[in-house]
Design a protein that fits this description.
CATH architecture of the largest domain in chain A: Orthogonal Bundle
GO biological process, one term (chains A, B): regulation of DNA-templated transcription
Pfam family, one (chains A, B): TetR_N
Largest interface: A-B, 56 and 56 residues
GO molecular function (chains A, B): DNA binding
Distance between the termini of chain A: 50 Å
Order of helices and strands of chain A: HHHHHHHHHH
Strand content of chain A: under 5%
Structural class of chain A: mainly alpha
InterPro entries (chains A, B): Homeodomain-like_sf, HTH-type_TetR-like_transc_reg, HTH_TetR, Sco4008_C, Tet_transcr_reg_TetR-rel_C_sf
Largest sheet of chain A: none
Keywords (chains A, B): DNA-binding
Number of helices of chain A: 10
Oligomer: homodimer
Helix content of chain A: over 70%
Chain lengths: 196, 196
DNA sequence: GTATAGTAACTATCTAGTTAGGTACAACCG
DNA sequence: CGGTTGTACCTAACTAGATAGTTACTATAC
């Protein structure tokens, strides 16, 4: 690490502020709905710098998504596959604490179809681990590994995915603790862990 | 039904073309990304008529969403709650045939938070039926009814929700038939139907 | 001939991206 | 050291094109 001059430090700080502001804007409004001017303003910075540092709006969006993705992957590197319900609950908590992150991912899913290297590698790795556990007989193998992982993600996200109308219908049962325990139970059942 | 004049019939036809074009535009680009000009063009009609018939872009969006929602609810009115896996598979097929419909719903979820009467009633009804079956002992009651239904929807949507990266990781297992059977099995496990 | 369906051209506003310039920090020179 | 200059960081004002919504008009069925 070369020591940074004060100018460089300031520059980095500005970039961080821009990224944070962009994250906020994009998770709220998506790519098409986001306004470059608002991002600059929110960052207490200047629009020009966005184009200098990040190229254009789309590239900024991609950088923001990529960073959030990496952060999430880093936060959940280890715990697979012998405690899938535990992993699901961990992800559930992550999601509950950061609904904005998932909003951002949905926007990307709708507005930009492409999928990054990091992401592909991550999925391949996790699916491979589950498949390995299945071959070793440590996990029920009736449902293929990739399906199992897809369902796990589906269950974990089901509440934020569901319309508010459904949440309303849940009434008292909609507290976070109860939802968490249901997620654990559901994933245990799907993965066959509850019978093991 | 009053008999329609030819003018009225033509007017209705124009409205239908506008709605169809709007559906296409909105499911592709969302509310913010949609272009009123493109909708008019696609409908081989005129922009002005959109404002006459539907008010403005947002109201048009709401009408389009509402219609799709009602169509979907009508298509799946009956089959709950004693064969939840069957219901899930039916929904799964509906989704596979009409991914655009779900894209539209996701856009709405991100871009407009409100939730319609029809939708609320629909959820309340379905959750109530499941709860009833639980009370009657026909269905495992460890997971609350609303949670069960949320998970069912999560599992059904998990594939279209998942990043393409995960689909890639599934390889040969990603055929629709195999995915359908996994959905059936997963929902059976979550709802406890497989043990019954 | 008049009300209803339809059209094209227009406008005010907004927005991504750019131009032209200013400011402050460091480095070099006298 | 004190001043000068180059350069990296930053800013405000601008532009060209797009976009939601309107106005003013024509055509056609009854």
């Amino acid at each position: 690490m070369t020591p940074l001059t004060s100018k460089q430090r300031q520059s980095r700080a500005t970039q961080e502020r821009l990224l944070a502001a962009a994250f906020e804007e994009f998770q709220l409004h998506g790519l098409a709905g986001a306004r470059v001017d608002r991002i600059a303003e929110r960052a207490k910075s200047n629009k020009r710098l966005i184009y200098i540092y990040f190229g254009n709006k789309e590239q900024l969006f991609d950088v923001v998504v990529q960073r959030s993705l990496e952060k999430m992957i880093d936060a959940h590197a280890v715990p697979l596959p012998d405690d899938l319900p535990g992993y699901a609950v961990e992800l559930f908590d992550y999601l509950e604490e950061r609904p904005e992150v998932f909003r951002l991912f949905w926007w990307r899913h709708l507005e930009r179809r492409d999928t990054s290297e990091v992401e592909q590698a991550n999925y391949r790795d996790k699916v491979a681990r589950i498949a390995e556990a299945q071959r070793a007989g440590r996990l029920d193998a009736k449902i293929p590994a990739a399906h199992l992982f897809a369902f796990l993600l589906g269950v974990v996200q089901s509440w934020s995915l569901a319309s508010d109308a459904l949440r309303d219908a849940a009434g008292e049962d909609a507290t976070r603790d109860r939802r968490r325990e249901s997620v654990r139970e559901a994933v245990a059942r799907v993965t066959g862990t509850s019978m093991g």
